[in-house]
Automatic annotation (TrEMBL):
GO terms for biological process: carbohydrate metabolic process. Residues 256-551 form the Glycoside hydrolase family 31 TIM barrel domain. It comes from the Eukaryota. It comes from Ceratitis capitata. Residues 564-646 form the Glycosyl hydrolase family 31 C-terminal domain. Residues 1-25 form the signal peptide. Belongs to the glycosyl hydrolase 31 family. Keywords: Glycosidase, Hydrolase, Signal. This is Putative family 31 glucosidase KIAA1161. SUPFAM superfamilies: (Trans)glycosidases, Glycosyl hydrolase domain.
Length: 649
C-alpha cells in the first residue's frame, strides 16, 4: 500500500502569525488547495508564525518562522504555487512531488539585506533520530546530539568540517535540503533553541555581504521511511558518483609517511620504509610521500637535498611493486620565491576586498601564506599543468590533495563566478580540478561534489579512543559521509595521527585496524612491526580479511555509481522501522548483507551486538541468529572482530 493510503488522504500546510495573540490564532483557520492535487495550505494564527506539513489529520512536521509577520496574504499564483505576502517579503510554496512515495515542498523567499529570516523545527528528541549534516571533529551519531550556535554552514578547518552538505534526514522519513545560494547559518540545541534545528539566511561573513537581496530556499520532503526519503534526495539533490575509485586501493593497503615520520622524510627514509613493508610480508596499493618534499611550500618542485633524483626513487619503488603518490596542498608561502610573487602578479591568489592575499595555514606563520584561487579557470589550468609536470619528471602516479576548505581564505574574499555560491564555490572548484587526476586521487573537502569518482578522506583523527576525535568517531564520521552522498570514504591513518607525541598503543592500533576491515580502504602509517610479533600476525589476519571482502566492497562501489546507495550504511538501512537500530553508533553495514561490530572501548574484550531483522551468521563461529535481537557480552579478545553475514535463502 502506498504512502497516501498508509498515512493520509490529503496534504496541507498550516500557517500562523506571531504578531497576533494566541487567542486570535486559535479561532481562525483557512485551507487552500494546490490545483490538481490533494495537497493544501492551511493558514491560522498562533503565538508564532509556523506551517505544518500534513496529510489528512496527521501532522508530519511543524516548522516555525521566527520572523514577525503582519498583514500576510496568501495568493494562488498562475504557476499553481502559493505565495504568502507581507509588506517586506514573499514566501512561495511550490509543490514539487506528491505521490504514493513522497510529498516534497519547496519553500523560498528573497529578503532585503539586513533581514534575518529564520525557520525552525523541533528535533523531537528522543522520539526522532537525525542523520546527515556537517562533518565534525567530535562526531556524535545520531546527529541530534550536536550543539551549534550561529554556525556558518561552509567547509572549514574548525571542527574538522571538511564535508558540508546542506542535507538532513530523520528516522521518520523526513528530509531537509537547503539550496547553495542561501547564506546558511544554523542553530541546533543552542541556548534559546533547545531541541530545535533552525535555518537562517544572513548577509554576513563568511558569505557574500554585498548583495542587495538575500535568497532563502529550502526543501521539505516526507516519505514512507528514512531509506525511501534518502534515495529520493539522492536522485533529486545529492546525485551519485559516475565511476568508482581505483580497485587496488580497495583491496590492498595504502602506506603513508605522515603519521609515522611527519616531516622527517627523505629518499633514504622512503627506501627503508618500502623495504620494511616488503620484508615484513605486507602487500600495498601505493606508497604516499607526504609533507615536506618541496623546495618550499607552493613551489611544486622537489627539494634536491632530500630527493636528489625522484625519478630514480620512484622507478625503484615501482620495481618493488609500489605505485607512488604525492601530498599536495593549495597554498603558497610568502618565502617561496619566485613562485609567490609570480602567482600574485598574475592574479592567481585569493585576495580580500582590500587587495590583501594574506592568510595562514598549518605550515605557515600568521599572514605568511596565500591561497590559490581555484574559482578562476586560468588558475585551474596553471595549477594542473604544474602537477602534470612533476608527475612526468618525478614518476608520480597520483596525488593526495589536502585542505580545500573555505576557512583558509582571507576574510571577505573576492572570488569569481556566481557570488551567491561564495565561498563554498572555492571548495567545489578545487575538488573538481584535482579530481581530474584520476581514480587514485584522495581529497578531504567536499561540497556538492558527490558525482566525483574519488576517495574522500576523513579529516585527521587523533590517536584516542573516545568522542574527542578518536576511534569511535571514525565510524560515526564514515556514516555521516555515506548519508551525505559520499560513499567512497578513505578512513585516514590506522591508529590515528599521533599528534602531541601520543602514538597509538598496540591495543588501539589493532582495534582501529579491525574497525577499518569493512570500510572501503586500509591506510597504514604507523606499522605493526613497531609493536611486536603478535601485532604483525594479527594485522596480517585482518589485512587479509579486508582483501577477502574487497569484491563485496567493489560490488557496492558499482551499485553506488548506478543508484547512489551508500557503501557503508547505518544499521537501520536494512529495516528503517527498527527503533533500536536507528540509534546504534558503533556498528555499521557493508552493503545490505554484512554487519561490522568492532570493539571501540579501551580494555574491552566483550561487547553487546545488535542484529536487525533477518538471519545472520556469525563470521567467527558460524552460529546463526534470528534478528532482531541483542547478543550480550559477545566475546572479542584482541584478535577477534565481531561480524555477521546475512544468511541467503
Amino acid at each position: 500500500m502506498g504512502i497516501a493510503k498508509l498515512l493520509f488522504a490529503s496534504a496541507f500546510v498550516t500557517l500562523c502569525l506571531n504578531s497576533l495573540p494566541a487567542s486570535s490564532c486559535q479561532s481562525v483557520e483557512q485551507r487552500f488547495k494546490f490545483p490538481n492535487s490533494d495537497v493544501y495550505l492551511r493558514t491560522g494564527r498562533s503565538t508564532q508564525f509556523h506551517y505544518q506539513v500534513m496529510k489528512g489529520s496527521k501532522i508530519l512536521k511543524t516548522i516555525t518562522l521566527e520572523n514577525a509577520f503582519s498583514d500576510a496574504k496568501l495568493e494562488l499564483l498562475d504557476s499553481g504555487s502559493y505565495a504568502l505576502k507581507t509588506p517586506d517579503t514573499t514566501i512561495t510554496f511550490d509543490l514539487i512531488a506528491n505521490n504514493d512515495n513522497v510529498v516534497h515542498v519547496r519553500v523560498s523567499r528573497t529578503v532585503p539585506t539586513g533581514s534575518q529570516p529564520m525557520d525552525c523545527f523541533d528535533l523531537d528528541i528522543p522520539n526522532t533520530h537525525w542523520y546527515g549534516g556537517p562533518e565534525f571533529k567530535d562526531h556524535y551519531w545520531p546527529v541530534e546530539k550536536q550543539t551549534l550556535t550561529n554556525f556558518s554552514y561552509v567547509t572549514k578547518e574548525f571542527e574538522n568540517m571538511g564535508v558540508a552538505e546542506r542535507y538532513w534526514l530523520n528516522s521518520k522519513g523526513e528530509f531537509y535540503y537547503v539550496e547553495d545560494a542561501t547564506p546558511l547559518f544554523i542553530e541546533q540545541n543552542s541556548p534559546g533553541y533547545e531541541n530545535k534545528l533552525c535555518f537562517s539566511a544572513l548577509s554576513a561573513l563568511p558569505f557574500n555581504t554585498r548583495a542587495e537581496k538575500v535568497t532563502f530556499v529550502y526543501h521539505v520532503g516526507v516519505a514512507r521511511n528514512a531509506k525511501d526519503a534518502h534515495m529520493y534526495a539522492v536522485k533529486k539533490f545529492l546525485s551519485h558518483p559516475v565511476e568508482h575509485p581505483d580497485e587496488r586501493m580497495v583491496a590492498q593497503p595504502i602506506w603513508s609517511t605522515w603519521a609515522l615520520y611527519k616531516r622527517d622524510i627523505n629518499e633514504s627514509v622512503i627506501r627503508a620504509f618500502a623495504d620494511e613493508i616488503v620484508n615484513k610480508g605486507f602487500k600495498n596499493s601505493q606508497i604516499e610521500i607526504d609533507d615536506d618534499w618541496e623546495d618550499c611550500y607552493g613551489a611544486l618542485t622537489f627539494r634536491q637535498s632530500k630527493f636528489p633524483d625522484m625519478k630514480k626513487l620512484t622507478d625503484d619503488l615501482k620495481a618493488k611493486g609500489f605505485r607512488v603518490t604525492l601530498w599536495i596542498h593549495p597554498f603558497i608561502n610568502k618565502n617561496c620565491e619566485p613562485t609567490y610573487t609570480d602567482a600574485l602578479n598574475k592574479g592567481y591568489l585569493i585576495l580580500d576586498h582590500n587587495g590583501n592575499p594574506d592568510t595562514q595555514w598549518w605550515n605557515s606563520g600568521t599572514n605568511e601564506a596565500a591561497y590559490v584561487d581555484f574559482t578562476k579557470p586560468e588558475v585551474r589550468t596553471w595549477f594542473s599543468d604544474r602537477l602534470k609536470k612533476i608527475q612526468e619528471e618525478g614518476g608520480i602516479d597520483s596525488f593526495k590533495f589536502d585542505a580545500g576548505e573555505t576557512s583558509w581564505m582571507p576574510d571577505d574574499p573576492v572570488l569569481q563566478g556566481d557570488l551567491s555560491l561564495s565561498p563554498t564555490q572555492m571548495t567545489r572548484d578545487y575538488v573538481r580540478t584535482v579530481g581530474a587526476f584520476g581514480p587514485l586521487v584522495e581529497v578531504r573537502a567536499a561540497q556538492n561534489t558527490q558525482d566525483m569518482p574519488i576517495f574522500v578522506r576523513i579529516v585527521d583523527k587523533d590517536s584516542e579512543w573516545g568522542w574527542n576525535n578518536g576511534l569511535i568517531t571514525l565510524i560515526t564520521t564514515m556514516l555521516q559521509m555515506n548519508m551525505n552522498g559520499y560513499p567512497f570514504v578513505l578512513p585516514d591513518m590506522i591508529g590515528g595521527n599521533g599528534y602531541d607525541d601520543k602514538p597509538p598503543t598496540k591495543e588501539l592500533f589493532l582495534r582501529w585496524l579491525q574497525a577499518n576491515v569493512f570500510m572501503p580502504s586500509l591506510q597504514f602509517s604507523y606499522v605493526p612491526w613497531n609493536f611486536d610479533d603478535e601485532t604483525i600476525e594479527i594485522s596480517k589476519k585482518f589485512v587479509q580479511m579486508h582483501e577477502d571482502f574487497a569484491p563485496e566492497i567493489i560490488k557496492r562501489f558499482k551499485l553506488a555509481t548506478e543508484t547512489g546507495e551508500p557503501v557503508n550504511p547505518p544499521l537501520w538501512w536494512v529495516d528503517p522501522s527498527d527503533q533500536v537500530a536507528q540509534s546504534v553508533y558503533d556498528q555499521f553495514l557493508l552493503g545490505d548483507d554484512i554487519i561490522a561490530a568492532p570493539v571501540v572501548q579501551e580494555g574491552a574484550v566483550v561487547r553487546d551486538v545488535y542484529l536487525p531483522k533477518g538471519e545472520w551468521k556469525d563470521g567467527n563461529t558460524n552460529e546463526v541468529h534470528e534478528g532482531p535481537k541483542w547478543l550480550m557480552a559477545y566475546k572479542a579478545p584482541l584478535d577477534v572482530l565481531p561480524h555477521f553475514l546475512r544468511v541467503q535463502n
